[in-house]
Hints:
Layout: E1 2-3, E2 17-24, E3 31-38, H1 63-79, H2 89-97
Antiparallel strand pairs: 1-2, 2-3
Amino acid sequence: MLSQYGQFPGPILKDNSFYHYEGLTSDGKYFVAALFLVNLPLQSTAENPNADGVIHPNDISDTAALTAYYQGITDKLNAASADSFQPSLTLLDALIQSITVSPQ
């Protein structure tokens, strides 16, 4: 999954996200976790959080506006190709699929 952590409902910015994988090995014996920084195919920055045309509300208590904002950003990211992320989500998926666990 892609994730961005925060202690408040802030804007989604192009350079604050992670490719986050968690899973079990096929035998269910081992937990595997991986976390990689990823740049999103967005223009939004801390200085200009509305650069992608999806307006982050000034009033974060306005839950309807926040829901609309996050849905708008989600739609933009879902429409983006996997290779427009840096690094490419295709490459990160391949990396995760290549992990092998050999018990010692």
